[in-house]
Design a protein that fits this description.
single chain; 303 residues; alpha+beta; Beta Polymerase, domain 2; 2 domains; five-stranded mixed β-sheet; 5 strands; 57% helix
């Protein structure tokens, strides 16, 4: 088995690992919102290894892969926004075993998901995210599962190929991955501290070393460039990725279904302040924001 196939096999094994019932229930709720278009549901992020009894106080992260945007939505504008500037992001709550689960899920076509893993793509969000472990909670068929595994394996090769020249040819696997995450964090609008990359690698060290060894075999035949050209590439990626991040945030003010409930849940979680809202305010979160912000301030939610 060559290195490329071995890496895909390793990623496929990771993706196939079972999830706890709460995650399965939330994934089913995500899929049920787009039944005509759903191809696969991926679970990822900081909650991946969190105990099930803590998930009700967490925000779960999912990607929903679809085959057709028009089939995924009732509105043509939402489908168009997803195609032009993927993904669309939504907030969802669901009940499970007497608790309320909450998630944020992104919708993207399988075709755009695959395209986003390539080294030719300056936007870091997909290949940085899915070079890490994730779980394929559901897929429509085995062919889709194989395609997802191949895409995530490509994400790992892209992540390492873009970081190797900066880290140096003699750098350890740990050092290369740390440098890769440091650069991708700098390219996104994120709040992580400077030590987050080291923490991320240290939490799954043996996995990153295995992926590194297999990915390296597939990268030996690929020209990676010099350290200077690689640094210039990262400067360009930072400009492109941050611009796209801000564009998606602007789009989310119109497409983030449930945004107001999500914000109020975060306020309650951090301050304990509960603020009732009307259906009209949910339908018009931008118009409602000034009044609600003032009420939250008066109740001591923030200073």
């Amino acid at each position: 088995m060559d290195a490329r196939a071995a890496l895909t096999g390793l990623i496929a094994e990771e993706l196939a690992q079972p999830v706890v019932p709460a995650v399965q229930a939330m994934a089913d709720a995500v899929r049920s919102r787009h039944p005509k278009a759903a191809l696969a549901v991926l679970f990822y992020g900081s909650c991946l290894r969190r105990p099930e009894n803590l998930l009700a106080d967490s925000l779960l992260d999912f990607y929903l892969l679809v085959d057709d945007y028009k089939a995924a939505y009732a509105g043509a504008l939402t489908a168009l926004a997803n195609r032009i500037l993927p993904p669309n992001v939504f907030y969802l709550e669901a009940r499970h075993d007497g608790a309320t689960l909450r998630c944020k899920y992104a919708v993207i076509s399988l075709a755009q998901f695959r395209q986003g893993m390539s080294r030719s793509v300056d936007n870091v969000s997909l290949w940085a995210r899915f070079s890490q472990q994730s779980r394929l909670v559901w897929s429509r068929d085995p062919g889709t599962a194989r395609t997802v595994a191949e895409a995530c394996a490509e994400a790992a090769r892209t992540m390492l190929g873009n970081a190797l020249p900066l880290a140096g040819g003699d750098a350890s696997a740990d050092a290369v991955w740390r440098r890769a995450f440091e650069e991708t964090y700098r390219a996104e609008v994120r709040s992580e501290g400077s030590d987050r990359a080291a923490e991320l690698v240290g939490a799954d060290q043996e996995r990153y070393r295995r992926v590194h060894a297999l990915a390296l075999g597939g990268l030996r035949q690929v020209p990676l460039g010099t350290a200077a050209s690689c640094a210039a590439d990262w400067r360009r990626r930072r400009r492109v990725s941050k611009l796209l991040n801000f564009a998606r945030l602007a789009k989310a003010t119109f497409t983030f279904d449930g945004a107001l409930d999500y914000v109020l849940w975060k306020v309650k979680r951090h301050s304990g302040v509960v603020l009732p809202v009307t259906d009209w305010q949910r339908r018009h979160p931008l118009l409602s924001a000034p009044v609600l912000a003032w009420r939250l301030y008066r109740r001591g939610a923030f200073r």
